Fold these 2 entries.
Entry 1:
Amino acid sequence: MDGVSSLEGKEKYLNSPFVTAGDRTYMVGHQDGSFPDHGWHVKGEMGGIWLHPIKLMDGFMLSYFKDGEEHCLNNAKQFFNYPFANLHRFQSKFSGLNIERFQYIPDGAEGVVVEYRFINKGKEAIKLPLRFVAMVDLRPVWLGERTGMEDEGDFVEFHTEKGYFTGRDSKNPWFVSWKSSLKVDSTSFKKGECSFQRKGKGLDASQFMSLKLEAGETSSLKIFIAGSYKSETAATTEMERLEKEHLALLEMKKSRFQELKSFSEINIPDKELEQMYDWTRYNTDWLIRDVPEFGRALSAGMADYPWWFGCDNTYSLQGVLATGRPELAISSLKLLRDFSEITNGNGRVVHEVSTNGAVFNPGNINETPHFTSMIRTLYDWTGDKKLVEEFYPFLKKGMDWLMKTYDKDNNSFPDGFGMMEIHGLNSEMIDVAVYTQQAFEDLGDLASILKKGPEAKYYRSIASKMKSKINEEFWVDEFSSYADFIGTTSQARHLIDDAIVRADTLDKPWAVKELKATKNKISSYPAEKKQGFVLHHNWVVNTPMEMGIADSAKAIAALETASKFVNYFGAFVTGIDRDESAGDDEGSFAKGKKIFSYTGAVMTLPTGVLAISENNYGRPDKALAYLKRLNRSFSYALPGSMYEVSPDFGMMSQAWNIYAINYPIVTQFFGIKPQAGSKFITLEPQMPSSWNEASISKVKIGDNELSYSFKREGEKITLNLEQKIEDWQIWLPRSKYKKITVNGKELGNKGEYRVPVSGAKLEIVLEE
């Protein structure tokens, strides 16, 4: 692990979760080395070792004996997170004896490698009796019952001759095998001192070993754990592979993460932000779920959402593409399309799919249009026309389904739930309208790429009409904001009453007052009168700016309004939950919040959307301010990661963070806007005023790679650019600058909005 960066956790968060990540297998425990029951999706069962679609163990525990007493290694004093591994440090009852636990999961492995290191810094030899307890719990994933996965009790066998254990479910072909690098002296299947009460039908299996350490000596115990949901042979074969190849596999994983960092690698003045940018890419890798029966795709969050979502991917994959991972974007989108076709068959994009193939929610209506735009983004970054041909019929069918099924009054705005999961909030939602408008615009472009002229014209005409209608009908001048929804007076009254209860319960008197004023204002309106309402100040009112379709004057006014609904860490999901103590940086975990809820939540996605929105309207300093708010949550509880709910609640790692953080840095601050299908890249750097020097390297666009450095001196900006394929065109924003010089030659065409240049190496000087 020499040369691999690591981050140390905080003492007060040692009793909070961490993840040891792998694409096939992962492990969730606590930073202190314990494995308490964790999670709410399947209550208490989301921790431990998972090989989707089954769980292998609730965890494990090593203990040592001194003077007849057993001491459990579940109280680490330090925790260190690496991009692809973890380390716990324990203090022992032996003078001078330090103990560490290191673990990692090789790429593609159906198991985990654990190493305990014993460092005797004392002056005397130590004889150390040990007990390793494996907490077997072979059980199915969430919704397992829908596909016939019924959990039964487990039993464990020790294979004396070969020195390894095998656990199996008594009804299903689910297996877990493990062995140690030290000789097993004896075994037991009784609960020991270090066992704890846990849910499920599993059991504990103990092995006793001994170790002698001379003064100054370091020794280790390695544990190799592997599983299978097919056969015992597969589990033991994988266990033996990990035993033989674990060091080589660790080197391979280290090399892959070094390569991962090399694409779209940035060097910026704000080193804390740069660190967050790097680790967000690592977090994204942690969330890849590869289940051979279904495919490989990005999951939503760890530890309660380790499966596949439509909406989460349509945000996240934009950042994934911007940071050089088109293969992950493609496989994720294909998996979602395939499940959508099997489940719905009408182009509707599914919302949530468990790793056993069970679909929980066939799709909210924002997901189908958002998926459509994601395919346009995929084409922009890959230039792969075959992908457009493959997806286009599905997209066309989905948009047709959406409008025929949900736009009953034919006013271009579908009715139904979008991103906001508030009871009753399912009329004409602002985010659904905006993403639908963008989808028609993008579908028109995709039709044009496929030379389907009449279809392109038709879809673009819908998009143009919707853009005007959104700016007219959703805008509420009184609040300088776009409406949460368009609905009838009758719908609004019910929602206002619910919102007043919510605001009153949360002790938000300003919101109660505002809501009552709105209720009084509409008291005389006809029950079926339809208009836009600002009630909740939900974050989705910022989607017109996120997509850049808001009129400039309205956009600036709306962004100023949005800036009122933030705290120290970012934007509130629901504005009426706004906390007046915006400077309070104490997290909800520290306050003892135990029940999972999004009420009162400040989340990373809404904050990132505001950063993107500010950039869209030429305000990079304000965008940077939102990223700095996000940065306050980075490493707050889990070193190297950001929680879904800022700063320390919900999922400990969340996929859409890469959209909130990395996407605006690559595509807006560095201004890289690809058109890989046409082999050109629009380059419009929009750096914050405090960033006078910055660079980005190996931005993967189609089969090209772009790198450039940025330097600002007064009103002069110098870009030193290199690209892998020299005949690709770089489009520069001619109208923004008084003078543009490329390799010493001034460009003409002063009336043009953009002008193209090409070459393997370019020195571009922009003068404002």
Note: The radius of gyration is 28 Å.
Entry 2:
Amino acid sequence: MSDTESVGRSYDALREKYLGERNRRLRSEGNDQYVAVDHPFIGDVEDPYVSEPLERAPISEDLDVVVVGGGFSGLLAATSLIREGVTDVRIVEKGSDVGGTWYWNRYPGCRCDVEAYSYLPLIEDHGEMPSERYARAPEILDHARRIARQTGIYDKALLQTGVSGAAWDEARGRWIVTTDRGDELRARFLCMASGILSRPKLPGILGAGDFKGHTFHTSRWDYVYTKGDNTGGLTDLQDKRVAIIGTGASAVQAIPHLGEWCQQLYVVQRTPAAVDDRENAPTDPDWWNSQEPGWWERRALNFEGFVNLIPQEVDLIQDGWTRNWGKMTEAMYKGKTPEEMGALRQQADYEKMEAMRTRIAGIVIDPDTAEALKPYFNWMCKRPLFVDNYFETYNRPNVNLIDTKGRGLDRITETGIMFDGTEYPVDCIIYASGFEVASPPDRTAGFDMRGVGGMTLSDYWTDGRRSLHGMLVHNFPNMAIISGLKQSGITWNITFMNRRQAEHYAALVKRCLDRGVNFDVTDAAEQGWLEVLADKAQKDDTFFRECTPGYYNNEGKNERDSIFLSNYGGGPFEYMDVLRCWIGNDAAVERDLALTPAV
């Protein structure tokens, strides 16, 4: 018997367990099981963090570029444009400040899960030393503000302003961008940087609108109700019975704080989370000050190498991400054939997850609760989480796990939540149900772009997405989508790819301004990119198809449209090379773009 056969037989039973857990979580409606966050039962979904409502007169102006979104994608786009000498720029942001994800997400415990030294974009240019390796949300928001302040972006930003429409005016050769404040911005170029985690979603649970108690989503945390802040101190929950629905990234960070302060906490789980310790530590000032120029790029590239199974000579990161990926990469490359490599990598994955399940059994006192918390899926089927004291929280007498075994709640009543015929009375329901991930920009931005002939982007993509490099779209001249994920490169450290795409678009804008031209992607260029995507597509999609349902695999429905199977299959490094070579090749640019004189 070969090593591969031995490995396969040893883990057949575990694989069947994984598949069984996956199958009972499949739902026929896929992503349609979720509803929009603007439902009235969720409370204040606009902006609970506004300290002073902004009053200003409508603006009417001509300019070079409008950037939609003030998160890191938008900040990187604006910064890249400014560095190219394109300064006639407006950022339009519906929040009362920049920051995007880190403006909206202020729940207790919220931090970055990729180390701050690699995650925080432009930290080498505009940064201050992070206080900790995994920085808290307020510190990350401060970094976004620092970028905006030091680059002059605040002077170019329209805050507390939502874009209501953007239409291409063929006669004027400009995008007419309108806002909910009556602004009309006439821009030659339009950069959609509304991000991938900007539209919260809710589970479509029967009776949710009937609940008479208090509700909010983790991305609109109500500190007026709970008191406290990102560090905890939720003192007004001491006499409250609270249910939190979800056990994803937001929930597992908030649950230890809720468990500490609530009179009673019910954690509603459909699928267990794969959680390791964070291993956080204060930043060493001597180490920080010893970094040589270019350190951020080297560190980010090192991280990307590990998570893309590319052997690295040294581990600059040395955290749960790189150690686990490093072990799997080392195991995989012991194989002599693709089949052996795949089997050995899977063996390493099984061993990793079995160690996690053993750790849970050693922490959680109640054996039934411990078993319910054990994740039975491959390590990368859901985003790995690194949170301290998560499993220990279930040893508190006031914390109860409601494990729905993939079903979700039966319904919500006027006074509580119901599962398997039992009602659990609660005063407050917190939805930790996450965000729509990689939705088209008309959903993330809240409006639909109209291109040549008045066609909307959603209509153009009725039969599937089409683009060049996942960024540029035929009949939508001078427009780019930053951080769209699909049909482009994808990374676990999303700000790294955002920077590359922002620099790419800024270089294209500068090129067109210098030459006095507008651009439109040709139909042939889009078709060519679709062919490249098909050629580079992952040939074996078994891993994601067999994963437990989630946003990685499009909730187990139409997996080929998931973020991992619809992106550039050659990997992020190759994708970035494609961008670099294309923008530097006059012949390629003129082949793929229809260039017309600017009006």
Note: Residues 164 and 200 are 19 Å apart (CA to CA).
